[in-house]
UniProtKB/TrEMBL annotation:
Its main location: mitochondrion. Its EC number is 2.1.1.201. Component of a multi-subunit COQ enzyme complex, composed of at least COQ3, COQ4, COQ5, COQ6, COQ7 and COQ9. One of its GO terms (molecular function) is 2-methoxy-6-polyprenyl-1,4-benzoquinol methyltransferase activity. This is 2-methoxy-6-polyprenyl-1,4-benzoquinol methylase, mitochondrial. S-adenosyl-L-methionine binds at S108, D134, N164, G165, S182. Methyltransferase required for the conversion of 2-polyprenyl-6-methoxy-1,4-benzoquinol (DDMQH2) to 2-polyprenyl-3-methyl-6-methoxy-1,4-benzoquinol (DMQH2). The gene is COQ5. It is found in: Mitochondrion inner membrane. InterPro entries: SAM-dependent_MTases_sf (IPR029063), UbiE/COQ5_MeTrFase (IPR004033), UbiE/COQ5_MeTrFase_CS (IPR023576).
Length: 294
């Protein structure tokens, strides 16, 4: 699988699907006011509406991440994710043993569902299991909600687990075949601990795949990217009324180790890293790192 040459992202731009931001609260003014009301934050709303609003707050956590990824990458993160999934090319070969996947920081489920779709399409694999882990229960709830819109809704192969990716104390040693983390490890307090834990939970022969924002390798693109980053919090304020999260996004990307250093950290955790160790996407705006537990 790793020797196979890396195919370029072939998905046409038109294939990029945008999930509608659901942060907007519904207009309640046209409802008659003789119905029972309740409190939702500082707003007074109908009791029947409250459940929906609570749901919208959950989904706004996830769509906030979607929007941030969209803004930061100009929508291209969806192509990167497709490429990431195809590059891993994971799935039980026909007649082969099913795999155990774990997708960490995978709240929204997009990588998890994408990996299973790929396994099915490429290898007719409908036996492999998937554990979706996220530290944020709201994010995970959103993933469970999105599951209902997929063909896996009645499938007990997928489980959701609130866990810190640095620890994963509910995941046994040597129990997983494929560990993925997409745009999540940057947020770990202790990244090395996260990588060591990934090594622990993978079986010998297991693969780690990491997709993350990285360092731009082209001077001209980097200038433009730096300029873009400077304005991002301002756009964040305008688009999502949220300066700080976008400021944090930029800072966390700047703080994240550069490709060669991150590769060393993966090796430090014990992984064998096939050369060159990573693939730059879009001039290094993002990168895919791969390691194998021998
Ligand atoms: C930007 S989202 C990425 C979601 C999805 N994997 C994607 O690629 O779009 C980052 C996710 O990382 C999760 N996260 C942050 N720190 C984590 C940790 N230490 N352990 C597990 N999940 C974590 C957050 O809750 C959030 O859901
Ligand atoms: C993780 O993300 C949250 C907000 O999304 C932020 O408040 C926190 O400081 C981040 N932690 C690290 C270590 O980057
Ligand atoms: C990827 O980008 C980094 C810096 O941003 C650069 O040093 C490196 O040569 C590039 N590596 C590959 C494998 O393209
Ligand atoms: C980015 O900003 C610098 C000055 O800070 C300017 O010299 C450069 O031309 C800008 N680049 C682009 C592509 O916008």
């Amino acid at each position: 699988m790793l020797r196979q040459s890396i195919r370029r992202s072939a998905a046409p731009l038109s294939k990029i699907t945008r999930s509608a931001p659901s942060t907007q609260l519904r207009c309640l003014s046209d409802l008659s006011n003789d119905q029972k009301t309740t409190h939702f934050g500082s707003k007074t709303v109908l009791e029947s509406e409250k459940e929906k609003l609570v749901g919208q707050v959950f989904s706004s956590v996830a769509s906030k991440y979607d929007i941030m990824n969209d803004v930061m990458s100009l929508g291209v993160h969806r192509l990167w994710k497709d490429h990431f999934i195809r590059k891993l090319d994971a799935g039980a070969r026909p007649g082969g043993r099913p795999l155990d996947f774990i997708d960490v920081a995978g709240g929204s489920g997009d990588i998890a569902f994408g990996l299973l779709d790929h396994a099915k399409a490429r290898f007719q694999d409908d036996k492999s299991t998937m554990t979706v882990v996220d530290i944020n229960p709201d994010m995970l709830k959103e993933g469970e909600k999105r599951l209902l819109d997929t063909k896996y809704k009645n499938d007990d192969r997928i489980s959701f687990l609130v866990q810190n990716g640095e620890v994963l104390d509910q995941i046994e040693d040597n129990s997983k075949d494929v560990y993925t983390v997409s745009f999540g490890i940057r947020n770990f307090t202790n990244i090395q601990a996260g990588l060591n834990t990934a090594y622990r939970v993978l079986k010998p022969g297991g693969i780690i795949g990491i997709l993350e924002f990285s360092k731009v390798d082209n001077t001209v693109v980097d200038l433009a990217y730096q300029n873009w980053s400077k304005f991002l919090p301002v756009f964040g304020q305008a688009i999502a009324n949220d300066f700080d999260s976008y400021q944090y996004l930029v800072e966390s990307i700047q703080k994240f180790p550069k490709q060669e250093d991150f590769k060393s950290m993966i090796q430090e955790a014990g992984f064998y890293v096939p050369e060159p160790g990573y693939e730059n996407l879009t001039f290094g705006v993002a990168a895919i790192h791969i390691g194998i537990k021998l």
